[in-house]
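In response to reviewer comment 3 from the previous cycle, which asked for concrete evidence that the modeling workflow produces usable outputs, we include below a single protein chain processed end to end. The sequence was submitted unchanged, and the resulting structure tokens are shown without manual editing.
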Amino acid sequence: MKNRVVIVGCGKIAGLFDDKDGGHVSFSHAQAYLNHGYFELVGCVDSSAERAELFSSKYSVPYFGSNLHDVLEATAADVVSITTPDETHCQIALEVLQYRPATRLIFLEKPACKTHEELEKLLRAAKISNIPVVVNHSRRFHPLYKNIKNKYESEFFGELIQVDGHYYGGWIHNGVHLVDLMRFLFSSEFNDFQVIELLENNLVQDPTLTVRAEFGPNKIPIYFHGWTDKHYQVFDVEFRFTKGRLQVNNFESKVIWEEKVVNHLGESVLQNSDEKSWFEGYSAISSAISVIAEYLDEGERAILRGVQLTDICPTMSSLWKVTQLTK
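The workflow returned the following structure tokens.
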């Protein structure tokens, strides 16, 4: 029997603009659920009833509308995906947690909330309802980064020396990916932050920041370089290790590993040693849906270790510490 899914928010990340027959690589919630085969899209909700109807028509979703409770009542959903604008995430998640009857899991887009107060409310509500809230910090699910984490922990790269990340589109909205990625890969926390530059963008009250941070007990320098996307979008990360340099460029589309070698002059230099196998695996959203499916099948909370609301609290705290520095 398939698990029933309601998607709240019928825009881009939900799948409104996807090619429904575009193949097996998933980039949206709807496509990932459909490609998995373990789920059934039974409802969709949007503040625009017209958009909800359009989404319903595209994916043959039987129940749609602009009232969340009505759709939940009609569908008895096992999973609720929340893909609405950032500022609405907390309130909608709270409504689902308080409604409760059939919901077994919430899949919540990042950022989970906007303030410490909202985070505390969500944590309390999730504990009372005993409903897992899985947050889509997508790179925690990405096969590439899982592979990098395993290689780092096996000492393949040596020790971490420095990281330079480049991102666009708001410190909270997209900077969250870089901040959380560092915590996920290297299992450490940030010690200090300095805001170097502030770039305005079209996101109200969420400027794109260039930030220097110190990370872990060795105070490793981490640089988050903000970029204005008026020209194009950027997401790159360069990791410098004692054994070489790893570059992950253009939204994970290109990975370069350069190993440290000693040349004929006795100089330590970098030599290209691409690892094509690092690309193997499903997309991040497909991996996330597979984790959710496994949890629903087995019911073991351990399956969700590292991807629940409680796991990303330090990430959000780090983001908010930086925003306080800009005031």
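The longest strand covers residues 190-199. We consider this sufficient to address the reviewer's concern, and the full set will be provided in the supplementary archive.
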